[in-house]
């Protein structure tokens, strides 16, 4: 389980709320895996991720466009790479079934996304807005 830290906030309530929603879903999946129910929860989690990424990445990219965020193109690419990873994992599960490997891969993917992307890359959006005197 990963606890939300205030340091994960970027200072944009809509985006921060979506990030907290992702963490809650990640923790649900961790808990299911801890209770030997990861196989049952993985498809639900992947379905959530596909829906989440459409809405969240769209909102985030729209915000970055509105504030002329200088790293929008690179950020958009990281979003596309994450979606590709999720779709590849779903494809692997559909072809081979759920396995310990697929549950570990999803755990690692989500944990890495939270720790590295949200806490580092997304944080830059709020910092950029604050440095430009934009309301967050």
From TrEMBL:
Entry superkingdom: Bacteria
InterPro entries for this protein: Haemerythrin_Fe_BS, Hemerythrin, Hemerythrin-like, Hemerythrin-like_sf, Hemerythrin_metal-bd
The keyword Membrane is annotated on this UniProt entry: no
Pfam families per UniProt: Hemerythrin (PF01814)
Family: Belongs to the hemerythrin family.
Keyword Metal-binding among UniProt keywords: yes
Protein name according to UniProt: Hemerythrin family protein
Domain Hemerythrin-like: 11-125
Keywords linked to the UniProt accession: Iron, Metal-binding
Any one GO molecular function term: metal ion binding
SUPFAM superfamilies: Hemerythrin-like
Organism for this UniProt entry: Paenibacillus agri
CDD domains found in the cross-reference section: Hemerythrin
């Amino acid at each position: 389980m990963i606890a939300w830290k205030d340091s994960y906030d970027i200072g944009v309530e809509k985006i921060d709320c979506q990030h907290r929603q992702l963490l809650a879903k990640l923790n649900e999946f961790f808990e299911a895996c801890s209770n030997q129910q990861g196989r049952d929860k993985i498809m639900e989690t992947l379905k959530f991720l596909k829906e989440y990424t459409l809405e969240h990445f769209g909102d985030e990219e729209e915000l970055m466009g509105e504030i002329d965020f200088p790293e929008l193109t690179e950020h958009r690419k990281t979003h596309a790479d994450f979606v590709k990873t999720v779709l590849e994992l779903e494809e692997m599960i559909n072809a081979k079934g759920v396995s310990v490997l697929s549950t570990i891969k999803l755990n690692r993917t989500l944990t890495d996304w939270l720790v590295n992307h949200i806490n580092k890359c997304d944080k830059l959006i709020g910092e950029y807005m604050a440095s430009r005197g934009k309301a967050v």
